[in-house]
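Lab notes, practical 5.
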Amino acid sequence: LGVWDEEIDAGYPQDANTVVMKAGNALKLKGSFAARELFGLIHAESAKVLATYGGDFYAGRPALTVNGFGQGEAYYVAARTEADFLSAFYGALIDRLELAPALDAELPEGVSAQLRTDGKTDYVFVMNFNATSSTVTLKAKPARRDLLTGKAVKGALELEPYGVRVLASER
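Output from the prediction step:
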């Protein structure tokens, strides 16, 4: 990872700090994000610092780094962050790596889609982790086949509470 992790500082639940993105960072993230409870005290060795802590005695210390390794990169998030940082961070990685989603749809909160393939057929496991029903609107055409019902699915996909659907389509 290209860092030396000196220690992790565990604060009280109300302890907070900020992760401040450095201008011109490789992920093109801007602004600052809340960090709570866990704060890693790291030293960048071969890693590049993308963000630093904004306050307390942590101010200016690395909070997010990236290190080239082989043909890839390894990121180190040194603090416990909140959902807004995670959404921005993972969104930036998705854009940077030009990753395609498992399912061409906006997934409601609590719904996930996982792709598996045998090289000929793609299988997408759509799972609802909510105690209420969820609807996923499929954008892709043509229709996919629901392996649990045998029916073609296009448009709205209804998921019962804690329900799962397995959708298949030929490559």
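Observations recorded by the TA: The chain is about 10% helix and 50% strand. Residues 83-97 form the longest helix (15 residues).
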